Known about the structure:
Helix 2 (26-50) runs antiparallel to helix 3 and helix 2 (26-50) packs antiparallel against helix 5 (107-126). This protein has helices at residues 3-23, 26-50, 53-72, 77-104, 107-126. It contains five helices and no strands. The termini are far apart. By secondary structure, the protein is mostly helical.
Amino acid sequence: MNAMTQHAVNAYSQVGVESNVADASPHRLVLMLFEGAIKAVAKARLAMTKGEIAPKCEAISKAIAIVQEGLQLSLDVKAGGELAENLNGLYEYMIHRLVFANLKNQVEPLDEVGKLLVDLKNAWAAIVPKQAQPKMAGVVTDNTPPQRNTAVSYGKA
Length: 157
């Protein structure tokens, strides 16, 4: 792929990401943050195994930024209580492990953080926001009892 084609692909990808972000629900945005962090950790691991220092550092920095400035800052500790506090601590731990991986050039912390991110992403993906739940006839989704049809029909109306 020549440089001009690569530039066009990168520009197209950026537009796709920007339009996905603009159209995404808050739930989807968090999923996108997890996906971005997972990809950055995977890129860092690959660069580390190839001995490519600059790409490794860039990818780890990107993963740290996503965890710190995206996932961690989006927590509402007051509303989320203990769960949000625990997630905050876990995000802090991931950041420290990513820094350690970078400094010591070790893949094990990257693997650990990658697994944690995948587990959190899968748990988040399992949560279906209320507005995204499908409305199906006869299925109660909000704990209110269904309305009973009291009209009786015997054949043609």
